[in-house]
Specification:
This protein is an all-beta fold and 274 residues long. A hairpin with an 8-residue loop joins strand 3 and strand 4.
Amino acid sequence: MTIDEDSTGVIWATWTQVAGSASAGWTNTVYVNASAPGGTSWPTPFVIPASDPHPGPDDISAVVAYGHNKIGVMWSDQISNTVFWATRTDGTSATAASSWHDQPALKGRGLADDHLNLKSLQGDTSGRVFAAVKTGLDDTSADKTLPELLLLTFKPGTGAFTQSTISTIGDCVTRPQVLLDGQHNIVHVFQTAPASTVSGCAFSGVAGSIYEKTASMSNPVFASGRGTPIIEDSASHNLNNVTTTKGDVNSATGLVVLASNDVTKRYWFADKSL
């Protein structure tokens, strides 16, 4: 589940919820909920009023506030090979279908997987949203040059997403997190990949070390490779699941990321100035 706060003080939450059984089959549904201002109370959760709120059982959703008065919800759907994006304006009915507009953010065979992370730059007058998403192309192709992680950039002025490759299948990366530095116009992406002493991997998604890659927010073109190791446990190459703040970063805040080692049962962190 992820949360964010809109311009009226309402806290929004989204998650996916699986029902059914192995014999009868499984149904997954994208739910949202909106609190009273300040999160003081919560009504009954509801299914997002979108054209396809039923992704695969493994899929997830995320929410972000953007553009000073908008809420956006993104979810993966491996059944339809689509990453969906639904938006609404603050102050409109939370449950009415007429308040929501949904569209594909990414669509195509093998392009949807169940890893995504959303961020917006609150001071950005254009209201851009940046999403790091993982594809499933490693399951559909042997071409190691195809994208494993993509950065999707939503531009409200056009109402569409652009995309750029963060890392390829050959980089063997997973679990992306995106972080925005508006002061320096830089988008940071953190990802898991095998340790820096390891070349190649048995499969995408293997634990190892945490890497950082950066690009210009205005023209997000990432250099090739896994990036720079930012957290590495030389005694146990099992770091994974990097996480960081939802807010913007700058030279006053610095940057902090956290990751876990499931084998040694330890959390690791890295911090750096900007």
